[in-house]
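Thread amino acids onto this structure.
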C-alpha cells in the first residue's frame, strides 16, 4: 500500500471519507498528537486499528467528534461538573470518559461500559471530523509503544505502507496527548495528565482527583500499565538537580566513542555547550510541543539519549514528566 501525505482540501477529505466508510484508517492531525482514525461503529475497522499499531487489545480507544456533534447520542449521563468543564475547555486537549450508551462498536472501549470522548480544536481535525460526520475511534498514529507523532512525517515514518492517507496538519502545537478525565463519578478524576491540568480543572469545578497507577495494581485507564513513548535507542533520565551527573555520564559515553546526545530544556542547554544538545526550548509550551520530536531526533541521529528533566515539574510540566519517565523507563 502506498502511503501519501495530503494537504487538507475537498479532494483529500472526500478520499478520507471514502476510506473511512469503506472500513479503512486515516491519519489526521490534532492539537496534541496525530491520530489514526476509523469508523467507531465498524468493529472490523476498529479491530484493524489495533492490528496496524500492534496495540494490546485491552487498551481502549478515544472517540473523536466535531464540535457540533451531539454526544448525548453516545453516552448516557453527563454530570453537571463535566458540562461545565466541556464548556470551558472544549474543543481542546481534554478527553472525557462517560458511561457509554453502547451504540459504538464494543471494540472501541475493549468491552468497558464507559466511552472516552474527545473534541479536538485543531482546524484540520475539525474539518475531517465534520466531513465524515461520524464518531472516529483514534489512538495516536504511531506503532504501539513508540514515541507519539507530532508531525505528519512522524506518522509516515511509523506507518508507511500500512495506511493510504496521512492528512497534513503541520506540527502539533500541544505536543503531548490529551488529559484523560474520568467523568463517571461524583468528582472528575484525572487518568492521564496533559495540558489541561489538575489546577485548571480544580479552578473551574472545585474538586479534581488523580488516579495514580501502581505497578501490579488495577488500571482505571488501561493505557497506564503499558510502557509508552519509547525511542528506539537506550535512554537515561536525570533530575534537574543531578545535571552534573548527567554531564559526567554524557562525557563518559562520548569518551567511549558513543554517539550520545543531551535532551534538555534551554536552562540546562546553557550549561552544556560542550555537548550535542537537543534543546526543547524555554517555556512550558515549547518543552511540551518539542518533546516527542526531540525524542525522535534523538533516536534517528544518535545512539544514546541522556535526558535532563526541567526544574519546574508541576502544572503542564507534570504531563511532560510523566512522558519523559515512561520514555526513559528502565531499559
Ligand atoms: O491526545 C490524544 O488523546 C490523542 C489524539 C489522537 O486525540 N489520542 C491518544 O490516544 O492519545 P491513545 O489511544 O494513544 O490513548 C488513549 C488513552 C489510553 O491511555 C486509554 O487507556 C485511555 O485513553 N482510555 C480510552 N478509553 C478509555 C475508557 N473508556 N476508560 C478509561 N481510559 C480510557
Ligand atoms: Mg498512544
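Threaded sequence (331 positions):
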Amino acid at each position: 500500500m502506498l502511503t501519501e501525505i495530503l494537504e487538507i482540501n475537498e479532494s483529500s477529505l472526500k478520499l478520507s471519507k471514502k476510506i473511512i466508510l469503506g472500513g479503512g484508517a486515516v491519519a489526521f492531525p490534532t492539537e496534541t498528537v496525530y491520530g489514526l482514525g476509523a469508523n467507531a461503529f465498524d468493529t472490523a475497522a476498529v479491530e484493524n486499528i489495533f492490528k496496524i499499531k500492534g496495540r494490546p487489545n485491552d487498551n481502549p480507544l478515544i472517540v473523536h467528534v466535531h464540535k457540533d456533534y451531539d454526544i448525548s447520542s453516545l453516552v448516557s449521563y453527563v454530570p453537571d461538573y463535566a458540562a461545565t468543564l466541556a464548556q470551558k475547555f472544549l474543543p481542546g486537549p481534554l478527553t472525557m470518559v462517560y458511561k457509554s450508551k453502547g451504540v459504538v462498536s464494543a471494540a472501541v472501549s475493549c468491552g468497558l461500559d464507559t466511552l472516552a470522548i474527545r473534541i479536538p480544536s485543531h482546524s484540520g481535525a475539525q474539518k475531517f471530523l465534520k466531513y465524515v460526520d461520524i464518531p472516529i475511534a483514534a489512538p495516536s498514529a504511531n506503532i504501539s509503544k513508540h514515541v507519539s507523532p507530532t508531525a505528519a512525517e512522524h506518522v509516515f515514518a511509523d506507518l508507511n505502507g500500512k495506511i493510504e492517507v496521512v492528512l497534513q496538519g503541520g506540527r502539533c502545537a500541544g505536543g503531548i496527548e490529551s488529559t484523560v478525565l474520568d467523568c463517571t463519578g461524583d468528582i472528575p478524576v484525572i487518568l492521564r495528565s496533559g495540558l489541561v491540568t489538575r489546577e485548571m480543572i480544580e479552578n473551574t469545578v472545585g474538586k479534581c482527583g488523580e488516579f495514580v497507577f501502581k505497578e501490579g495494581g488495577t488500571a482505571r485507564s488501561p493505557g497506564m500499565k503499558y510502557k509508552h513513548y519509547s525511542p528506539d535507542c537506550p535512554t537515561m533520565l536525570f533530575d534537574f538537580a543531578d545535571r552534573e551527573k548527567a554531564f559526567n555520564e554524557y562525557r563518559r559515553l562520548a569518551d567511549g566513542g558513543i554517539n550520545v546526545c543531551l535532551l534538555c530544556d534551554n536552562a540546562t542547554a546553557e550549561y552544556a555547550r560542550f555537548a550535542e544538545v537537543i534543546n526543547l526550548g524555554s517555556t512550558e509550551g515549547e518543552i511540551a510541543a518539542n518533546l516527542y520530536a526531540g525524542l525522535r531526533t534523538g533516536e534517528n541521529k544518535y545512539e544514546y539519549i541522556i535526558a535532563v528533566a526541567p526544574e519546574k515539574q508541576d502544572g503542564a510540566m507534570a504531563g511532560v514528566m510523566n512522558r519523559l519517565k515512561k520514555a526513559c523507563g528502565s531499559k
